[in-house]
Amino acid sequence: MHCPFCRHADSRVMDSRTSEDGASIRRRRQCPECGMRFSTTETASLTVVKRSGVIESFSRHKIVNGVRKACQGRPVSESDLALLAQTVEETVRATGSSQIEANEIGLAILEPLRKLDEVAFMRFASVYQGWESLADFEAAINVLRANREYTESGESFDLDETKRLTDR
Ligand SMILES: [Zn+2]
After folding, report:
1. Residues in the 5 Å CB sphere of ion ligand 1
2. First and final CA of the chain: distance in angstroms?
3. Is 110 exposed, middle or buried (0-12, 13-18, 19+ CB in 10 A)?
4. Judging by beta carbons within 10 Å of its beta carbon (0-12, 13-18, 19+), is residue 130 exposed, middle or buried?
């Protein structure tokens, strides 16, 4: 890393810190020649292979734009969308590969979007998965219902369990 002040060809790393989303590393450096301090940010590259075979770099912005369409008229804020895009990036980065299929991004969007807004989820999933008939929508609604009932019964079950233990 060249010193931005005197162009010396080398610099000493004083401190490294990973960003909150794990996508970049910030390093504080010092030039051994002129003594000036500066910092650099290194971003691990993440590329997406589209269905057409075109490769492009991963972009949270594109995720937000894609999901925003499905959220029209729904109580979803810009910060909700930003958080969702962050979650999606963390999910795909956690796979450890630097190149992912566009399809995997779609999959990674579904779960956090379901939690955010079920109507937006239905809209997004219907386009993404190419639902063609009422039966497809029905099947998805059944999964949503089953999921909700499972969550609700799961919580009350836990509550009862806690009570039973403390009553003893
Ligand atoms: Zn220097």
Report:
1. 3, 5-6, 8, 31, 33-34
2. 65
3. middle
4. exposed
Q: How far is the CA of 30 from the centre of ligand 1 (A)?
A: 8
- 32: CA distance to ligand 1 center in Å? 7
Say how many Å lie between the CA of residue 33 and the centre of ligand 1.
5
* Residue 165 CA, ligand 1 centroid: distance in Å: 65
Q: Say which DSSP state 56 is in.
A: E
For the entire predicted model, the pTM comes to: 0.64
Q: How far is the CA of 40 from the centre of ligand 1 (A)?
A: 14
Question: 31-73, pLDDT tens digit by residue?
Answer: 999 999 999 887 778 899 988 999 998 889 999 999 999 999 9
Low-confidence ranges of the chain (pLDDT < 50): 154-168
What is d(CA 145, CA 147) in angstroms, rounded to the nearest whole number? 5
